[in-house]
Amino acid sequence: MEEQQNKHLNRKMIIFIVGLSLTIFGFGMITYSFFSTSIDADNLEAVIDVGTMKVKFADGNSTINERLMLEEEIVKEFTIENTGDLDAEINIEWLDLINTYMLGSLTYTLEKSEEKITGYEEILSKTEVPVSNTEYSYTLIPDLQIPTGKTYYYRLRIKLNDLTVNQNEDINAILSTKFNATPVSSDRSYTLEIDPNGGILDSNSNIQIENKKAGEVLNISVPTRSGAIFKGWSISGYGSNISENTFTMGKSNTKLIAKWLEFNAVKAVNNILKGKLPEGFQNDTPNFSLVATTNEGVYAMEDDYGMSYYYRGASTNNYVKFGKWADISANSTRRGKDMYWRIIRINGDGSVRVRYDGIEAYPNGKSDANKYTTSLAFNSNTSDAKYLGWMYSPAGSTHSTSKIEAQTNTVSSNAKKTIDSWYETNFKNQECEQFIADKIFCNDRSTPYAEDETSVGYGTISTQYGAHKRILGYDSPKPKFKCPNKNDAFTVNDNIYGNNALTYPVGLITADELITAGTYFNATNKNFYLYGGYNSWTMSPFELYQSAWPGMFYMDSNGGAYSTSCHNGGYLSPVINLTSEYFKTLIGIGTIEDPFRESNIEP
Fold first, then answer.
1. C or N: which end of the chain has fewer Cβ atoms within 10 Å?
2. Closest CA to 232 of 453, 69, 542, 241
3. Which CATH number fits domain 188-262: 2.60.40.4270, 3.40.140.10, 3.40.50.300, 2.60.40.2100?
């Protein structure tokens, strides 16, 4: 709601000046756009003669001056008169049309009457003005039949639509065109432009151009686009239509532009809070045995709060700008810098799980140490299963003597202490801390391989943990977002879903989230959005091997999921959850150039 309110506060007021040629220029939020005329200002009637047909822009002036808001329209009136002895037909065209407005922003309708003032009926329903960056000839109205001696009156209504999406692109958009009239030809061919609009059509990403006569039929394949769902074709061209994959040419140059729906996290959160299903996610399950090197979009999987929506592959629309580095040290090069994050997933309750990604919006595939906070051992000690815990017991080097003891959350791991200190410095008592949600960080210490779970998971007993089985124990990985045990579901104050054992609401990514994001065990993937070029920890235990090797899942420098002893070095990328009430108000579209952020923050 707030986004819509902001949008309406920023509506553009537009002046239209219309004559034989029309041009729209946008210059800013409260400045103006213009239809301008090339007609001599002294010429009060603009006239086009085609044989015995006379087209008059007979409003008594070569221009129209109107102020328009979004959802308002301008009306251009003209007459067509047949001064000959025979009935005749005429086409009204737009020549050299350029329209850089967003798809659907500009539409037109046409009304006709035999009287100048009353009796108008719509003869052409709402039609999109074709979008084109290059000059384009377009039949506005074909086959207008005018009996001998008759004069018909027309009203062309051009409307600036208020779309349901951000229309910032329209601020500096241009519409430029000129009216023309031509006699009707029975053997005329028209141009068909098929624009995949960033997608791939029959292995081709370019605009395809064909010449077709009215009535010709063409089969058009379904295009594809990385990370987006095809939503049909936008069609502009009089009489042209498409039904499923079958296109029929009308009596006009025609444009087909593919329409795509890309997942938008802010819209998704708003829908979730309204009890609605988000739009734009892939309604299937990917093959987790394969790495995702392209933008595969967003998929759904249940978590502890409901249905979660996770990004997979080389995502380009999951950037978030949130918080600033505080003064960690007098010589800190990051002091005061903005923090950038990548969305891992939207939790089932609408909160948003994000992973720290640096002090700038890095493109996918970028290796940079600034994408991490520091490097250290997850736990410095070995030879006990307890050291695979985010928290554990007993303290010191004393061996744990039971699974319950090893998994009693009293002592913080080395990684947790460091992450807590980082959070305390950068977020504690900061204004933005109120927007960080208390959600689960899963340190899954379940032992699904054991017949008697109480016989493993402590001391020096070899143990394999839950994430190990989900990722390596099946023909294909079966990652999950649900935390199997409440004791391993780390939260600060929440004791309904979690264990309320944390000091601060911060943690690390899980091995399951690595797999759903697009990598695989012992694989290489330098293209997906979590790649950073350095070994980095997850908070998922792998196994205690032969009493001396407590292994944790981590992501290696090549972007693959691996395991290593917890006493080895690894970088930390903090993970936090942003509240749904905060996130639903953000602006932007989640790209590098336009990340999700508060309305008062620059991209």
1. N
2. 241
3. 2.60.40.4270
Neighbour tally for 103: CB within 10 Å: 19
Fold of 2-184: Jelly Rolls (2.60.120)
Task: Indicate the domain borders of the chain.
Answer: 2-184, 188-262, 266-281+296-583
* Residue 148 pLDDT exceeds 90: no
State the pLDDT at residue 262.
92
For residue 542, how far is the Cα from the chain centroid? Answer: 34
State the Cα–Cα distance between residues 453 and 455, nearest whole angstrom: 5
Q: Which residues, at least 6 apart from 126, have a Cβ–Cβ distance to it below 8 Å?
A: 107, 108, 109
- pLDDT value, residue 433: 97
C-alpha–C-alpha distance, residues 283 and 303, integer Å: 16
Which tokens hold the place of 53?
């047909």
Angstrom distances, CA of residue 579 to CA of 425, 434, 436, 583, 584? 20, 9, 6, 6, 9
Residues 6+ apart with CB under 8 A from 433: 427
What gap in Å lies between CA 392 and CA 407, rounded to an integer? 5
